[in-house]
Amino acid sequence: MTYYDSRSAEKKAGVSRFRMRQLAVIAVMLFFCFAAVGCSEEEEIVHVDMSRRERVIVPEYTDAVTYAYLPQYSHTTSYIRHNPLVEYLERVSGITMRQVFPDTFEEHTRMVERGEIDISFSNPFTYVKLAQKGATAFARVIEPSGLPFFRGQIIARIDSGIRRLEDCKGKRWIAVDPLSAGGYLFALGMFRDMGLDTGDFATVDFAPGPGGKQEKAVLAVYAGKYDFASIREGTLEVVRDKIEPERIRVVVSTRDYPGWVYAARKGLDPQVVARIKQAMFRLSMEDPEGGRILANAGIRGIIPAEDKDYDPIRILMAKLGLYSEERE
């Protein structure tokens, strides 16, 4: 049988503590010895005051003109589609440019208002809101259809039972964003015209998270989480590698509305805008380089635009209770 000897244990513990103190003293002595060897008489010992703190300021890109694509797709997709265009504009205009990536439609709008986005590429609904804050349209795109207009679409799984617009009543609807033109508001206007409002659906939800909302709306329907989605025309092509396209049906498309627009923030130097416009209008599908840049961005050209081009959007927004004539 083994007995516990408390006196022996205390003695051993005392010896251990003594040895630890010895080792600590030896370590301190060695430190000063090495310090003395490493420093010559001519070298001055530098004392560091760890109580002092200094704020590190990250430099800002104050000389670059910022360009942002309204985040209807993921940041990766936005970069892939528009970075070649940004690089082209920088090279041809001679103006340093930088692409920035807002997380949401609302953040995009606020950044333009604060002057953090100089050149905004947005849907027409967002533009109308920006125009009320002093932004000015100067260019619009030609869609893959070859026209400067675009549409929204209602999509559903082929096994959903939804074959006509009327079949959507009482069903689960996922939209892209409350400010998405093709992904929500065009469809909402179409439902209003047939006497339906948001309360006539089982649920109306919006795609979650920053960026990539068009893709998420399609994938939510594809996975069966919702009965139908409202998306921008052309989105199915963007996500066709993530789904089996034959399992998705386009139920209906909305009417045509004026296409996506380039706008300059309030106060941006008109000479800067003029140089960027000139570079944009030089792009052509007939030119090999221009054709690659335009096709990569999902457009066929860029043409001049005026604020009045977007009056049909203002009419629709007024019908939806989203527009007043106030302008700063």
Describe this structure in words.
The protein is α/β, with parallel strands linked by helices. The chain has ten helices and 13 strands. The strands form three sheets. The protein has a six-stranded mixed beta sheet, with helices on both faces. A five-stranded mixed beta sheet has the order 8-7-9-6-10. Helix 2 crosses helix 8 and helix 2 runs antiparallel to helix 9. The longest helix has 33 residues. It is globular, with a radius of gyration of 31 Å.
* Element pattern in H and E: HEHEHEHEEEEHEHEHEEEHHEH
Q: Strand sequence of the main sheet, in spatial order? A: 2-1-3-12-4-13
Number of beta strands:
13
Low-pLDDT stretches: 1-16, 33-41, 56-61
Shape: globular
Q: Label the structural class.
A: alpha/beta
Radius of gyration: 31 Å
Helix content: 25-40%
Provide the β-strand percentage band: 15-25%
Task: For the record, give the distance between the C-alpha atoms at the N and C termini, rounded to a whole number.
Answer: 93 Å
Average pLDDT level: 85
Largest sheet report:
6 strands, mixed
Number of helices: 10
